[in-house]
Each structure stands twice: as C-alpha cells, then as structure tokens.
Amino acid sequence: MFEIQFGFKQLSPLQLHVARWVVPVSAPPLERGAVAIFGNKVVAVGPANELRAALIDAEQIDHGDAVIIPGLINCHSHLELSPLKWRLSPSGSFTAWICNLIKARENIEPHEYEKALEEAVKTLHGNGVAGLADTGNTSLVWEKASSESSLWPFAGIHFKEILHPEKGRMEELIRDLRMGYENNGWFNFGYSAHSVYTVAPKAIQAIKMRDDQLNLPFSIHVAESKEEIEFVRDSKGPIYELLIEKGRNPEDFKMDSYSPVKLLKELNVLDGRTICVHCVHIDEHDIEILASSKASVCLCPRSNMFLGVGTPPVEKLIEANINIALGTDSLASNDRLSIFAEMASLARQCPSLDTATIFKAATKGGAAALHLKGLGSLEHGSAPLLYVIKSGPLNSKDLFDYLVLEVAESLPESYWAVEETDWMESYG
Questions:
Q1: Do residues 403 and 67 touch, judged by C-beta distance below 8 A?
Q2: Is there a contact between 230 and 287 (Cβ–Cβ < 8 Å)?
Q3: Who wins on pLDDT, 423 or 314?
Q4: Buried b vs exposed e over 393-422: b needs ≥16 C-beta within 10 Å?
Q5: Which domains does the chain have, with CATH numbers?
Q6: Is there a contact between 363 and 70 (Cβ–Cβ < 8 Å)?
Q7: Which CA distances in Å does 9 have to 6, 12, 39, 45?
Q8: pTM of the model
Q9: What is the per-residue pLDDT across 389-400, written as a single tens digit (0 to 9) for each?
C-alpha cells in the first residue's frame, strides 16, 4: 500500500517515474514499480499500475527495463589525495605506506589538485553517489564544495582532519575548532580526529565535543592495522618509531588500553554519532563495545585489500546489529572511487553475506551513519535522488546480486532521473 500526503501547495509538476524494478531499500523491491515526486520530495512509492490510477494528472516518465535505486552513500573518502592515483604501491607495511604517502604528497604540483578533484567528483557522481563524507587536511575540497560557482552534487560533510595535536598545543587546537564556517544544511563543515595514534586523548575529546555542538557526526580511523594495535596495546612497533622519527612524543598519543575501541570508550566519544572507519582488527569485546554505544562502522574493503591490512569481522558486526556503511577511502589506497566496486569487493571477501545486506550498507547504512535526512532510501519524504540503471529483465532473486556483483564490472547505461539543483534548496 502507498500513501500520498501533500500538505502544501503544488510548486512543481507532479512526476511519476516508472521502471521494471524499483528498490526502495526501506521496503522490498517492486517489480513494475513507480516513484512519485512532487515539491522536490518523494511523495509515494508503489506498484506502477496503482500509482498511475491514483495520479492521473502526473507527468509519466517510463525508464523501461531499468532499476531505480536511491543515491549511494560514500561514508569515507579523501578527495584531496586524488592526484596520488597510481603513485603508491602496497608495501607490505602499513607504516611504510604512510611514509610513502607523506613523501608523495610533497611532490604534487599545485595545478594537479584541481584537475584530479574535478575528475574525482565526476566519477563519484557518475557512479551513483548522492551522499559523501570527505576528510582532508587542507581546505581544498571545502572551498570547492562551498564555492558559489561550483555545482557540488553531494549532500554530506567535509571533515577537517586533525593530526598531531600534542598536549602542549591544546589551546591552539581549541582556537582552531572555534573557527566559524557557514553550513548550508546539505554539505556541512565538521572535524575529525585522524586516529588514536596521531591525536592526543584530550584532543580527541575536544574534537568530538565540537562536532556535537555543530550537530554533526564524528569520524575517526580505528583499528586499521596490526601496527596500530601494537602501538596501543604494547607501546612499541613501527608507529611508535615513526612518531619519534617525526619529532613527536609517542606518550602524547598513548593511554594504556586493551584496544583502540576500548580507548575510545574510555574517552567517552563513542555514541550514535560516531563513525569508526575500518575496524579491521577488532575482537568480540570491541564488537560488544561498538554495539552498546550504537556507533557506526564504515568499511573500506578495496583500500584494506590494497594495503594488505586484513578483513574486518563483518558478519559478527552485523550479527551484533551494528550499523554498517561503506567508503572508498582515497586514490592513494584504491584505484577506483566506486561504491559499486566496494560492494562487489565486500561480497567477494565475505561470501556468506547476503547481497541485500551489502546494498543496504551502501545506501541506508551510510545515510544513518552520517545522519543524512531523506537519503539512502526511497519513501515518502525522501529526496528525489533516483539513480536509474538500464539493466534488461531481471528477477527478484537476482536483483541484489546484479546490483552488488555485476554493475561495477558491466558498467551499464545509468543516469540521474532528477538533477541535484532541483532539490538542494529544499534539503536540510
């Protein structure tokens, strides 16, 4: 059954988008389904024949043998690193890769950033991404997204990533966090802590507090490598040595703790607005902590594979009812900015996972992690971001297998049914 609740004067034509399949995510797929859009919102999702009969004055747009899905959510990216595509190779050591990343950034010419960023945005948008959480150390992405001349196609957040605030620099950090940025309600400015091994405990708490004040999520890399676990648990290893090499005092970033997850719990920064990125090296105790805190976990399957850091216990995270999202990470540790590719990679790494569950992580899971109202599903009140994939005939049993396993490789014809500029003013 469907329900239409207008409650406002008609400001734009009523449209009815029809396709062989509609995937609401919040409800089972509909064969020969339709999505009604009115006033820059989805007002109904249901069987095409019923909506046609109810909405006889609607402009009907028939997409034929296609699948209509909501826009995908990329919950973790570093777009400013896009010029590094193909410049780094797996080294077998996470810390060695960090060192190579630092050196590679020093060799990027200023003019390379603009071109690489434009290509990254085009790629993400062309691959169905509607919601984005981007993390960066510079202001490059935020300036691009907030420029009046820029048609930024994503809702979401730019996180300014804090690195290396030591105990003696807390006043400077607090001053930086008080800087004012005008958020527009659809792509906002927030802060993230890089990790427990590069940000002092009190600084992590200060960053989390500031994001809470801004009513935004808080994001942090967690348990990405065995080297991180060794640093937190044993106060030694390659990360410990790297901090010393860079002139840092490792004790500034240390708390005696069982694991990075437990450390974050002790700092009281885990809650329903916290996004723990990666979570590769976690155990049952960590999973219990994450579940009880209601934090989200963002998985980056292809980045993990590139870096050789391992595979997170995804099945156990889902069994614990932890919200799962997906991210691409950066082109310094990935060769593609495609959430479809991340879904396919996760399915291969965890073959016991149901493909419908994986698709939910790429849509509704990401929207829930980022608290993106109206994104991640197609239902009454959601944003009219309909991504259309020309598929040919499919049956319901194969639908999610197709979306998760085949789209990234087959690259079928696809397009947005509604332009972003038509709905952004009403978003937020």
A1: yes
A2: no
A3: 314
A4: ebeeeebbebbbbbbbeeeeebebbbebee
A5: 15-71+376-426 (2.30.40.10), 72-370 (3.20.20.140)
A6: yes
A7: 8, 9, 8, 20
A8: 0.93
A9: 998 778 877 999
